[in-house]
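tool=predict chain=A
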Amino acid sequence: MSPLFDILVAGEINPDLILTGDVKPEFDQVEKLVDSSALTIGSSSAIFSCGAARLGLVVAIIGVCGEDIFGRFMLEEMQKREVDVSNVIVRKGQTGLSVILSSGVDRAILTHPGLIPALRASDIPDALLRKTRHLHVASYFLQTNLQPGLPDLFRRARELGLTTSLDTNYDPSEKWIGFDELLSVTNVFLPNEKEAISLSRKANIDLAADDLGPRVESLAVKLGAEGALGVNASQKVKVASIPVKVADTVGAGDSFNAGFLYGYLHKWELAKALRLACVCGALSTQKAGGTEAQPTLEEAMAYVS
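tool=predict ok
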């Protein structure tokens, strides 16, 4: 039987409260005004899921949220974007929340974890894995209960015929340890430039790519407005992004991931997959929030030769 889903995302589920303005917060009860506010789909995993579904992939997510207004908001909004949420675990507790102060090209983030760390590898049965082609995990450092069992989860997935991908996101502890075993069972690794340099402990991105690339089937490093750097067994290529008027960079990396994995799952050449990834990431920055400007495949392909 053909798999039901193209991608299963095992990840965190939380909304973002985005405040936009050219201000810096101060203590001592100093009140400052921002230009706008929006409650949007948050979390790297959920934003990625929506971006992949927007491109036409069949996507399911498994994670943990609470029986509260933020949990209901996330489930309803993901369903609107055709992400299957039937495997999400809803339990007592508080759904996580990130408050983001965005200045457009940069942002500061305060996150209350809530149930973000609650998902465990044992919550993901083989029966669910058999229904999908690919397993994606993001926000590794926030998903502390998933971390110990993740290498075995990826190993289980690969034994069942799935491919796997990982976006660690930033390590709040800045220790960047414990990845040798996990990368050995990861097909696609999707760090940004700072994460790749920190994880490899190399002096620059070229050296970092040379170190990380041989550990996985495909490496795709996000370079922001400079585009992306990709490595696989046969080549190392750099691809440019496209110019856009940036409103908000929240979730741009997750939209990049969606574009790259679309190309990967369709067996595209590395440079073409990187180009789609860069276009998806760039176009997603044109509206506030991680999902409002995510492109359809047709919209993105207008920039991909």
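The longest strand covers residues 132-138. The chain has a mean pLDDT of 96.
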